[in-house]
């Protein structure tokens, strides 16, 4: 395990950079006052292909702003965000089928059944109905939802709905997965199980994943690397985790993160 | 025998519940009919005709093509006017939802139009246009357009931001965005808008036909008024009521079929 106080330089520089923040800042106007609020401040970050990076920070530290910039839903005020060598905001359509998102809440379309929800991304890609339903069925079964294909979201439990949203993200076979605290609304047992499943699927399928969380334990459980952000989003700690690290090593990282976040 | 008993009990409860529901709907009408029939005993037919006469006049309208064609003409005018207002209103609503400048420009105009009485539009149409059908179409569109526009705009603005962002994250084409997100999200409000505007349109069309047409239910009502034929006036009015009820029920049936995905709480509001 390696750790650095401000910037961490990864060991396996062989993998290409998939996501790059280059001196990125994002400023918002406060509603009604005209004051400016800086959510992200001069952020520099590189995420390499195949990494599962947990982005950790307190509420309001700009994690979601950073996330939305990678997703192409927000434009940086300064600096440049590049994903797979392209600008996700100005080249929005180029990323069709290349980025998939698992949101904090399931965001299932209530008028679609589970299988129709999973097939949504494939429909956007123009895949034939038979093929997209076969793929959706495969992912629903893989996530333990066989038999619930034709259930509407209101008939599913919170955990099941979040599984459907994970299946929806994986079904498009996008290279990059963005996850915004996807298990925070679930009970601990369900969340633990889904976290493990999610991390396994990401690694099995060789995805690059950015996982936003405010839980240190979740970051330790899921990430290959943890990036801790301070308000406004600026890297305070960047650490690569070894798979199967000892409890003592994890405790050391946990203590360091707590120390950084306490500032 | 014992296992059958609960099923039989459930089915008899269901029958009873349907009968109670039907009785609840029929009761106010039965009271109205009874009161009218009592009045018919004491007043001359040109004030309160017997409902038996009204019934036979209704049958006469249904069975004589020359008369029923007037009903169909009015129905066609209502539906064409509503369809025109809906298409234009939906387009304006989309433009207003997409652009604040368009919204700021059109909202006051539509609000101003909403304040103009239907009868004024009838007068304007008679002065401006010659063709009867175009006059009525113009009146129908202008009187229902603001409501359709504001209702569709409201539905577009009330769309879930979370769901829209989720769909947008898949980078849909404009067509896919409409077909997978926007249309299903606003469809319930569109159905409600149609139900509301249908009632308004059936009132406006009668005024338009009364003054500016040579056929249709409104024109026939004018004839009955000149003949002091109350039974005829009621029979022609009922044609429109039947039509509105028919379309309202068709929309409700469609809603039941299309929106079966909605969760239903056992505790009602």
UniProtKB/TrEMBL annotation, chain A:
The ABC transporter domain, residue ranges: 19-256
Domain of life of the organism encoding this protein: Bacteria
GO molecular function, one term: ATP binding
Keywords from the UniProt entry: ATP-binding, Nucleotide-binding, Transport
Database matches in Pfam families: ABC_tran
Signal peptide from the UniProt entry: none
InterPro entries: AAA+_ATPase, ABC_transporter-like_ATP-bd, ABC_transporter-like_CS, ABC_transporter_ATP-bind, P-loop_NTPase
Gene3D superfamilies, sorted: P-loop containing nucleotide triphosphate hydrolases (3.40.50.300)
Transport as UniProt keyword: yes
Family as reported in the entry's similarity comment: Belongs to the ABC transporter superfamily.
Protein name according to UniProt: ABC transporter ATP-binding protein
UniProtKB/TrEMBL annotation, chain B:
InterPro entries tied to this protein: MetI-like (IPR000515), MetI-like_sf (IPR035906)
GO cellular component: plasma membrane
CDD domains: TM_PBP2
Entry superkingdom: Bacteria
Subcellular location: Cell membrane
Pfam families on file: BPD_transp_1
Protein's membrane topology: Multi-pass membrane protein
Keyword Heme: no
Statement: the UniProt record of this protein carries the keyword Nucleotide-binding: no
GO biological process, one term: transmembrane transport
Main localization of the protein described in the UniProt heading: membrane
The ABC transmembrane type-1 domain, residue ranges: 71-255
Transmembrane intervals: 12-39, 75-97, 109-130, 136-156, 177-194, 234-254
Keyword annotations: Cell membrane, Membrane, Transmembrane, Transmembrane helix, Transport
Similarity annotation: Belongs to the binding-protein-dependent transport system permease family.
Protein name: ABC transporter permease subunit
Organism annotation: Xanthobacter tagetidis
């Amino acid at each position: 395990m390696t750790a650095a106080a401000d910037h961490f330089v990864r060991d396996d520089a062989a993998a290409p950079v998939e996501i790059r923040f280059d001196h990125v800042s994002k400023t918002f106007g406060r509603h009604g006052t005209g004051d400016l609020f800086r959510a992200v401040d001069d952020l520099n970050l590189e995420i390499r292909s195949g990494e599962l990076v947990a982005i950790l920070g307190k509420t309001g530290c700009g994690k979601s702003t950073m996330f939305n910039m990678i997703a192409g839903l927000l434009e940086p005020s300064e600096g440049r965000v590049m994903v797979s060598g392209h600008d996700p905001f100005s080249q929005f359509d180029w990323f069709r089928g290349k980025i998939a998102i698992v949101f904090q809440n399931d965001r299932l379309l209530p008028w679609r059944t589970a299988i129709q929800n999973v097939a949504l991304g494939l429909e956007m890609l123009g895949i034939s109905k038979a093929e997209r339903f076969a793929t959706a069925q495969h992912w629903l079964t893989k996530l333990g939802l066989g038999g619930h294909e034709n259930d509407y979201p209101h008939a599913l439990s919170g955990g099941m709905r979040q599984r459907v949203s994970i299946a929806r993200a994986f079904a498009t076979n996008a290279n990059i997965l963005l996850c915004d605290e996807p298990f925070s609304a679930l009970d601990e047992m369900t969340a633990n199980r889904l976290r493990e499943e999610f991390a396994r699927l990401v690694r099995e399928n060789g995805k690059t994943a950015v996982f936003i969380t405010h839980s240190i334990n979740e970051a330790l459980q899921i990430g290959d690397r943890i990036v801790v952000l301070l308000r406004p989003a600026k890297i305070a700690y960047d650490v690569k985790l070894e798979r199967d690290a000892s409890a003592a090593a994890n405790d050391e990282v946990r203590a360091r993160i707590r120390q950084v976040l306490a500032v | 025998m014992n296992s059958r008993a609960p099923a039989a009990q459930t089915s008899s409860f269901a029958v009873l519940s349907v009968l109670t529901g039907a009785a609840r709907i029929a009761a106010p009408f039965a009271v109205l009919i009874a009161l009218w029939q009592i009045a018919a005993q004491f007043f001359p037919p040109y004030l309160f005709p017997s409902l038996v006469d009204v019934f036979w006049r209704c049958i006469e309208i249904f069975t004589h093509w020359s008369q029923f064609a007037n009903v169909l003409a009015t129905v066609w005018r209502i539906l064409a006017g509503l369809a025109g207002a809906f298409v234009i209103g939906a387009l304006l609503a989309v433009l207003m939802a997409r652009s604040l400048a368009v919204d700021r420009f059109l909202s006051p105009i539509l609000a101003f139009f909403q304040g103009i009485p239907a009868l004024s539009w009838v007068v304007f149409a008679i002065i401006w246009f010659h063709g009867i059908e175009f006059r009525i179409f113009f009146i129908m569109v202008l009187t229902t357009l603001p409501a359709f526009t504001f209702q569709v705009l409201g539905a577009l603005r009330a769309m879930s931001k979370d769901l829209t962002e989720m769909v947008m994250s898949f980078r849909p084409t404009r067509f896919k965005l409409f077909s997978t997100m926007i249309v299903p999200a606003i469809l319930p409000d569109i159905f409600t808008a149609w139900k509301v505007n249908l009632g308004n349109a059936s009132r406006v069309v009668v005024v338009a036909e009364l003054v500016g047409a040579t056929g249709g239910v409104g024109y026939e009502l004018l004839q009955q008024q000149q003949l002091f034929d109350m039974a005829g006036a009621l029979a022609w009015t009922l044609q429109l009521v039947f039509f509105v009820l028919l379309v309202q029920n068709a929309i409700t049936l469609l809603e039941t079929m299309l929106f079966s995905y909605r969760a239903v709480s056992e505790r009602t509001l």
